[in-house]
Amino acid sequence: SPSDYAATGSCRQFFTNVGEANVDVLPREDPQRQRLLVEALECLEVPGTQINEENAEVLGRLVCDLGGDYIRSSRGRLLKDLGQCGSFLPEQEEAIRDILSTGNTTFGPPAAWSAFTLSQLSRLIPVLDHSILQQIPK
């Protein structure tokens, strides 16, 4: 359990191991999976909803359980990590669309996306709406 690792000061290693595991064996609604995310955020001492790249790496697949506020606060830093997620909640999809539509990410505005950009975003394309898709150059 995380508390066992916390006593040794290695909760980061515990959550790195959890983040590398297939957390999908627990349904997203499972209280144990939700508790893992809460405990991971406490272990990493995440300030508010600010997830940096180092913490995203430790969270691994637990990033897929972050709420829309965390995704928006990331200002695009989590987009590549979110690409590993099999599905999204509506709140997460909306946050991803909000971030991508601003153009203030490393990918730039949709009007400047290339085939390479689309390949990098390939796992996120299903969440894009018409307003974003129509901006992408043909």
TrEMBL record:
Family note: Belongs to the mesothelin family.
Keywords assigned by UniProt, alphabetized: Cell adhesion, Glycoprotein, Membrane, Signal
Provenance organism: Zosterops hypoxanthus
Protein name: MSLN protein
Coiled-coil zones: none
InterPro entries: Mesothelin, Stereocilin-rel
Source domain of life: Eukaryota
Record PANTHER family: MESOTHELIN, STEREOCILIN RELATED
Subcellular locations according to the entry: Membrane
Gene Ontology BP terms: cell-matrix adhesion
